[in-house]
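Students often ask why we bother predicting the structure of a whole assembly rather than each chain alone. The short answer is interfaces. A chain on its own may look different once its partners are present, and contacts between molecules only exist in the joint model. In this exercise we take two input lines together and write out one structure for the complete complex. Read the inputs first and try to guess which parts will touch.
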Amino acid sequence: MTAIDMSVRPTPGAPRAYTFPAFESVTLPNGLRIVIAPQRKLPLVTVLALVDAGSVADPVGQEGVAQLTASLVTEGTGDLTGAALAELVELMGSSLDSGADWDSSVVKLTTLSSRLPEAISVLARGLTDPSLPEDEFQRLRTERLADLLQQRSEPRSLADEAFAQVIYAPGARYAKPDGGTEQSVRALTLDQLRAFHADRYSPVVTTVVLVGDVSVDGGIALVTKVLGDWTGTRPSDSSAPDTTLLTARGVRIVRKIDAPQSELRVGHVGPRRLTPDYFPLVLCNAILGGLFSSRLNLNLREEHAYTYGAHSGFDWRRWAGPFSMDAAVQSDVSAKAVREILNEFEKIRAEPVTASELSLAKSYLDGVFPIRFESTRAIASALASQSIFGLPADYYDTYRASIRAVTAEQILKASEVHLHPDRLQVVAVGDADSISSDLSALGHGLVTVVDPIDALGQ
Amino acid sequence: MTFRHLIAAGALALLPALCSAQSTRLRVPYTLDTLANGLTLIVHEDHSVPIVTTNVWFHVGSGDEKTGRTGFAHLFEHLMFMGSGHAPYPQFDRLLEAAGASNNGSTTEDRTNYYEFGPSSSLRLMLWLEADRMGWLLPTMDTPKVDLQRDVVKNERRQSYENQPYGMVADVQPALTYPAGHPYSWPVIGSMADLSAASLDDVKNFFRRYYAPNNATLVVAGDVKADEVRALVREYFGEIPRGPAIERPSPTPFTVRDTAVTLQDRVQLARLYLNWHTVKGTAADSPALQVAAYVLAGSRTGRLTQALVYDSELATTVQAYNDAKRLDGDFAVVATARPGLALDTLQRVIDQQLQQLAADGPTTRELEQARNATEASFLRSVQTVSGKADQLNEYYYQRGTPDGFQDDLDQLRAVSAADIQRVVRTYLQAPRVMISVVPQGKPALAATMKKVTP
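Now the answer. The structure tokens for the assembled complex follow.
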């Protein structure tokens, strides 16, 4: 055994080349798109059926209909009740679930490859011909209402919802929770769900992603067998959500009596996912609040110990989603913490990031890239994003080069264009009585105080 | 489990498991070495993606803490990132992030783990950083560092417990389920008063006692060559001196008495927590308790799920799990009532379902479903090298052999209907701790000691 000189710090070499899994895509005559990435590591296959029927497609007054419809897709089809369907899937050692986010509705299946033909047939039957039974509808609606009730006591949900309310114009879809408000969910009817399914679930706007122990030809044959006869036309475009900004700065406090911490959100509406400034903004965010060694975390956690962690992020959606800086801080330092957040925000758009910050952030994003694609589910999600946002076919092959190419000047320029100090809204869920005077003293516009029930879009 | 910093939801889904592809036996090949200073090294090669993970377990957790210093093992975990002899703060995070690697640590009752994952080219850096803080932590440790991380941990406690609906259950449950002095009778996060009391001397003593190579196991997994790893680890860790032999806590046997506690909290829906004392993870009854938890609430067709959430709609959610730790275990059923409903109603249904399961046992179909679901979850969990690495460490600590995947699965698959009847009767029809969390001003919703008698 040779002892080593510990004062010599090892310098990692360049990461080994990594190639994103090869995939092929085809479109069936009925308009359904298939994307297949064979991966022979384990006898598993993940299937995602993505329908362009996310919460942004909720008709006005029916907020929440996309999520409830998606949940019901796996609650029975034909002669299979919801319970029978779940039992059948579990007996096969498969997992099947469904839901919706802002941009799409999705049915997810992971199964042993030996059971793929049966399992994908169950998925297809639910997707195209769900029973949408009255009792399951009532139950899921009651559950959603109970969730909304619970959120009145949850600082993080309250902060997110209150933040959406203050950055989007009233009436904008994004101003309300993706699962709907108490009022809209209470008013939903099963007929509205049936109409949503009939209008929005169509092969023309559906992509089926298969990743794992399956061949390209075998996958196409299976999907053709279970979904090739599905017919449907292109739904009318769901209108882009109205994202008109409320431009004045302000502070919104959501009252949580005696809270030992304030849950903070500071930010405004950010750009759409397809912004040409995507890569400069990803790096800007990594440096500002995306990494452990980011400015916000080093300042609020490591220097001041105000919090267990501070972060920032763009919520990338097809339309303009929120940008926010977040931390849960000790109540008595709420205003000081907001001050530090505002300072960091000002700083990142005032001067270029340093060479060492940029180099660290690039190396990090470059290095962790392959780790994001270890499982069939993770690869399938990446292919799903590509499909939802319409990213180029070589997006993952060129990702690392795109990250590497970003300069400090591009980051500064993108910050100037997309970060707006004059529009910054501050939300604090906390003990209003003890934090409001300090927050007023920040001079960050009008301070308003609301109760939790009002923060949930009633 | 308490982490050094928050990680994205979903990353936690690694927890237990592994499984076979139908007939082939599931194997995770490894090499096992013990260095002269007592450090155990386990290496697993997986070349499917060009990444590597290092995963160190120190065999010390909150169960090793002393009265008046609860929360110390976890506070210490935070200090392990505050710089060491050759890598002063903040190099640890900065160098790893600059190498494209992520890292975190977590503390449980039984152990503290530290892990890095990144490009396989960063292995040497990872080993250097881990070796430096195992061998040279104290020269750079000082009171300001302790004070700073103490405040961060206090904020972690505020965020995850005090300001979190139902969060205070985790604070009171250990002392209700385990008797005073039992290593599991206080929460991993510790109390605010004990965190305030921790001193620099405590840090030094704790490090000298528990953070020695003979109390650690290192797993390296991923796109590496075992021989190269073994040579590198000898170079970096070989000179670190062995520490003293460690005395392990050994809890004395006890029985739980029926206990009912009510917490009024800022919540909207009442929630019932039932806790029973069971057995440690390696005990013969542990697999049957795990399968019983699946039969009760592991799927949409679980008995409690079906009865409470679907048929009667009395509850909005229900969970059941057996927390099998190294020295002891406990089983929990947690059910959230629909708005306004008193928890006695949930308690009654839960007791009826337990009685029925004890009397008739699970059906053949239920058992088959449990077996297949378990097998599939094992298979999903071996998809990532990080998941495999932590599990290799877990099996080695619990069972003395790293590749315990197939044995674990075999034991779960071997559970019979009679086993389930027996464990339900033995453990889940015994005295229990019942915690009702009710909205403030609504104590009448709390469950009472009335039980359904067989």
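Check your guess against this: Chain A has two domains: 24-227, 250-455.
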